[in-house]
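From: lab user (bench 3)
To: helpdesk
Subject: output format question, protein + adenosine-5'-diphosphate

Hello, I'm new to running complex predictions and I'm not sure whether the block I got back is the full result or only part of it. Here's what I submitted:
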Amino acid sequence: MIKLKSVSKSYRTGGEETEILKDVSLEIDKGKYVSITGPSGSGKSTLLHIIGGLEPINSGEVWVDGQPVHTMKDNALAKLRLKKIGYVFQQFQLLSTATALENVMMPLLTMFSSPQIKKDAEEALTRVGLAHRLNHLPSKLSGGEQQRVALARALVTKPEIILADEPTGNLDSETGKTIINLLEKIHDEDGVTVILITHDPELAQRAEESIHVLDGRVELKPYKVAIR
Ligand code: ADP
Ligand code: ADP
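Helpdesk reply: Thanks, we reran it on our side. This is the complete output you should expect:
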């Protein structure tokens, strides 16, 4: 369902071209739980951005659920992201002036009428255990709670794919575990494809497959027995 064919990606900075991904081919089946590992700066976020249609590529093809991301225009990409993809970031990326509920309602604003939006957002927040924090501003929430709001925002559109860029990177390991448990629960219960960037080998090994990024190349290896 996610397919990269001979993808190359480079950035130009200060007149110099640096190739981040070199002729990368990769297939991720629907419903898989996949981790992405690799040293800092190896291109993990870039790879996730490419899959999420957030970053153009220099050559190759990117297919998500049968759609040619590499040829699609911004409008079509926005629609694809809204319908199919939920994104979670290391820095939560919540709007600080909006409550938990309003943050989670945001992705739905262009889709439905308001009573429906509020109900869906409440449901998503309940799912991540935050039914009692609906009207809190992010600044009144702990880091773990803020990340759960961000996860609810990713879930609220009922995506087929969740892309998580080091979602535990700013959390202590105990709190991080609650986020991972939620991701695993969503994967197990809803059959959502999860792609998780992590520096934590223990978390990486809980996935069904792992993509290791190094020197512009990727290696996909299955974990024979999921540890959990
Ligand atoms: P990782 O997620 O593995 O830490 P990234 O994908 O964020 O790596 O970055 C890979 C490399 O590409 C880094 O050297 C980074 O500085 C560079 N890079 C990322 N985004 C850009 C950009 N928009 N412009 C220029 N260089 C970038
Ligand atoms: P993360 O915490 O996800 O690794 P970063 O702080 O590395 O995020 O990057 C934040 C944003 O800046 C990303 O969208 C990334 O693509 C971009 N970026 C990273 N490195 C560079 C760079 N060297 N030049 C320009 N943009 C960059």
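A quick orientation on your result: Residues 45, 90, 165 surround adenosine-5'-diphosphate (ligand 2) (CB under 6 Å). Let us know if anything else is unclear.
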